[in-house]
Write a structure and sequence with these properties.
This protein is of the alpha+beta class. Among the domains are: 132 residues, Jelly Rolls, CATH 2.60.120; 71 residues, Phage tail protein beta-alpha-beta fold, CATH 3.55.50. Helix content is 29%, strand content 34%. It has 6 helices and 18 strands. α4 runs parallel beside α5.
Length: 294
């Protein structure tokens, strides 16, 4: 039976014929496109919240960019440094242009962290010795009370005690030009040559120039004292500035006596006074920073 059934199935299958379906590609494509176009379309959009957030971010970026551009292109105000030398001490200061400044005790200097493109300006109160780096394109200017000193490169000493009516400018090397605050012209009031000292009177505004032995006015820095035919009063003035002391004389006429002496071994104040005592025949007593001569 199974064999008869199998032969029958094969006869039926053999009679079946598959007819190919005829299609036109363009017609099929058009029908599919029409379906897509006629169906409900989902439109993708951007939320208004994100739109405003994007605008805000763009504005913030513009503001930050403008700030950074302004910060790096506009000139910034100069930052200043200040150095004070304590009483009885000496302080060396190296300026931005490599100029070396020695500050005496109880003196103060103020200068910019970076000099500008035209000048090198500093302020001084007290006493200082300057070894100025030469720069013909940028003059070095020391601003004082009622005047200023202008140089290109040189060595000089300035004594500008705020309690004194005088300002001393002593030139060691090079040249310096002195201008009073009332002088608005490019012509200086005085020009010094080595070995000269200018005395500026704060009250009258006048300047007196005289020859001096410069070592007498820089000895506070070197520790070497050369006194040649100068008065005892001038010697005491040098010692006051060198050792940051104050002299008190019982007999003021002693100041007018002329002396010649030199001390080149870094002698102490007591040793110097003891040697001068031989000629002046006085007695002295040192109490802290006061020295009494009788």
């Amino acid at each position: 039976m199974s064999d008869i059934k199998n032969r029958r199935d094969e006869e039926i299958i053999g009679r079946i014929r598959f007819k190919p379906v005829k299609t036109e590609p363009d017609v099929v494509y058009d029908r599919l496109w029409q379906r897509v176009m006629n169906s409900d379309t989902i439109i993708m959009g951007v939320s208004s919240v994100w739109k405003y957030a994007s605008i805000a971010a763009s504005v913030a970026l513009l503001i930050v960019s403008s700030f950074l551009y302004k910060m790096y292109t506009e000139p910034r105000p100069l930052a200043y440094l200040e150095v004070t030398s304590m009483i009885g001490s000496k302080t060396q200061v190296l300026l931005p242009d490599s100029t070396v400044v020695w500050l005496n005790g109880n003196s103060h200097i103020r200068y910019p962290e970076v000099f500008d493109s035209k000048t090198r300006q500093i302020e001084l109160t007290g006493e200082a010795f300057f070894d100025v780096t030469e720069n013909k394109e940028k003059p070095f200017i020391v601003n004082l009370d009622g005047m200023h000193v202008r140089v290109l490169g040189t060595e000089f000493n300035i004594w500008a005690d705020p309690d004194s009516d005088l300002i001393e400018t002593t030139l060691v090397e090079g040249s310096v030009a002195l201008y009073t605050d009332t002088n608005s012209t490019p012509t200086p009031d005085e020009i010094l040559i080595p070995g000269e000292q200018a005395l500026f009177d704060k009250q009258s505004g006048s300047i007196e120039v005289r020859p001096v032995r410069t070592s007498s006015y820089t000895s506070w820095m070197t520790g070497d004292f050369f006194f040649e035919k100068i008065t005892f009063g001038e010697i005491l003035s040098v010692l006051e500035r060198s050792f940051s002391v104050k002299f008190h004389l019982k007999n003021e006429s002693m100041k007018d006596v002329f002396l010649t002496a030199q001390f080149t071994h870094k002698e102490s104040l007591e040793e110097i006074l003891s040697i001068l005592q031989i000629s002046m025949r006085y007695k002295f007593e040192i109490k802290d920073r006061d020295v009494y001569i009788r």
